[in-house]
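Propose amino acids for all 92 sites.
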């Protein structure tokens, strides 16, 4: 049975890391929330993708699908937002 060789490993501790903590560049300071900021949900303006409807409304849901309140057509929120923005640029 061959003898096991004891291998010594040198552990180098860098002063920039300070042990278990991250370096100062990795510890990012976050801006605290100000008191006067509105704490209300932000709505998204949508336009119905159904050709005959074209209703515009503000959507406060957090899902990827939205239903038109008039014609009850379901459409993706991203497409309805794009539809609203394109129509807004064509209007004025």
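Proposal:
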């Amino acid at each position: 049975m061959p003898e096991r060789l004891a291998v010594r490993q040198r552990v180098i501790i860098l002063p920039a890391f300070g042990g278990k903590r991250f370096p100062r560049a990795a510890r990012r300071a976050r801006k605290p929330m100000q008191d006067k900021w509105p704490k209300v949900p932000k709505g998204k303006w949508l336009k119905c993708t159904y050709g005959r409807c074209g209703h515009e409304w503000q959507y406060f849901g957090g899902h990827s699908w939205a239903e038109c309140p008039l014609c009850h057509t379901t459409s993706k929120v991203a497409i309805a937002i794009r539809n609203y923005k394109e129509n807004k640029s064509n209007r004025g």
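Helices lie at 77-91. Residues 77-91 form the longest helix (15 residues).
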